[in-house]
Specification:
Strand 9 and strand 10 form a beta hairpin. The relative contact order is 0.17. The protein is of the alpha+beta class and 286 residues long. Helix content is 33%, strand content 27%. Strands 1, 2, 3, 4, 5, 6 and 8 form a 7-stranded mixed β-sheet that branches. A 4-stranded antiparallel β-sheet has the order 9-10-7-11. The protein is built from 9 helices and 11 strands. Bound molecules: adenosine-5'-triphosphate (ATP). The site of adenosine-5'-triphosphate has 20 residues, from helix 1 and helix 2.
């Protein structure tokens, strides 16, 4: 079975409070995008399933999130045998784009179809939370408000059609370190989440774009922060309606109304960065 595993971007990322269990209570508007990995899922050739990507440094076998998802599905449903997963990786890794979670979600959808389990997407998303907190959103796709650790989802009106330029600078940011640096009481700048929700309802792309923000941007260390700011400035300079960092970074994206402006921004960024993409909002499969 062939599957497309769409990446996501965070139109907003806010941290509301630190919970008693030590986790942070998040509020994020998430958007699936057409930048995607391609997966093949087939019954395993050997006694145990394997997972192999065309990127040599990614974990294989049961350390790969694709196999974690297969195990979670078998555990939750009692259905399905071992599967081999082969991944054509196009989504940058450790980029704030949920590439691994997208692969896990694709495997859940494959196992659901291959076994005839007939779970609804909501049921599949619930199971997916056991494989990672971004997996439920990756199962549902589209546009959604994600709360809690990211697993509590409310579907939202679709982001109006647009062009999205994503640029991943060549460094990674440690997610635990970022959370460690956030002092919830000292957050000065936050996204206007309610405003984004209203703009989505009104189909107002510019209204969404100008209210986007990611609270992690304020706690990124100075050097990477300068690079992130420079990418945002380049996107805005070339006509983006708004630009923000996605997830725990370091990927930065801009929303464009016009395709030629997006191409122009792509060409400019491509002079300095290898991982630059132009994509569109991904519409959920029915
Ligand atoms: P998020 O936005 O959900 O925080 P991310 O984009 O920062 O995710 P991923 O690319 O999903 O990060 O990868 C995170 C880690 O998971 C990496 O250390 C990687 O080695 C591991 N991993 C396991 N399986 C996969 C997979 N199929 N694809 C990508 N990474 C995987």
């Amino acid at each position: 079975m062939e599957l497309t595993a769409n990446a996501k971007i965070n139109l907003t990322l806010d941290i509301l409070r630190k919970r008693e269990d030590g986790y942070h209570e998040l509020q994020m508007v998430m958007q699936a995008v057409t930048l995607a990995d391609q997966l093949t899922v087939a019954p395993a050739k050997g006694p145990e399933g394997d997972a192999v990507a065309d990127l040599r440094f990614l974990p294989t076998g049961n350390k790969n999130l694709a196999q974690v998802a297969a195990a979670v599905f078998r555990q939750a449903t009692g259905l399905g045998g071992e599967v081999d997963v082969s991944i054509r990786k196009r989504v940058p890794v450790c980029a704030g784009l949920a590439g691994g979670s997208a692969d896990a979600a694709a495997v859940l959808r494959a196992m659901n179809a291959l076994t005839g389990a007939g779970l609804s997407l909501e049921e599949l998303a619930e199971i997916g939370a056991r494989a990672g907190s971004d997996v439920p959103f990756c199962v549902l796709g589209g546009t959604a408000l994600a709360e809690g650790r990211g697993e509590r989802l409310t579907p939202l009106p679709a982001l109006p059609p647009c062009h999205i330029v994503i640029c991943k600078p060549p460094f990674s940011i440690s997610t635990p370190q970022l959370f460690g640096r956030v002092n919830v009481r000292k957050i000065v700048r936050r996204p206007d989440t309610q405003g984004v929700l209203a703009a989505l309802k009104a189909g107002d792309l510019a209204g969404v774009a100008r209210r986007m923000y990611n609270v992690f941007e304020d706690v990124v260390e100075r050097r990477p922060a300068a690079e992130i700011a420079a990418i945002k400035a380049a996107l805005i300079d070339r006509g983006a309606l708004g630009a923000s960092m996605s997830g725990s970074g370091p990927s930065v994206f801009g929303l464009f109304e016009r395709s030629d402006a997006a191409q122009d921004a792509f060409s400019l960024l491509r002079e300095s960065f290898r991982d630059v993409f132009v994509c569109r909002p991904a519409v959920p499969e029915v």
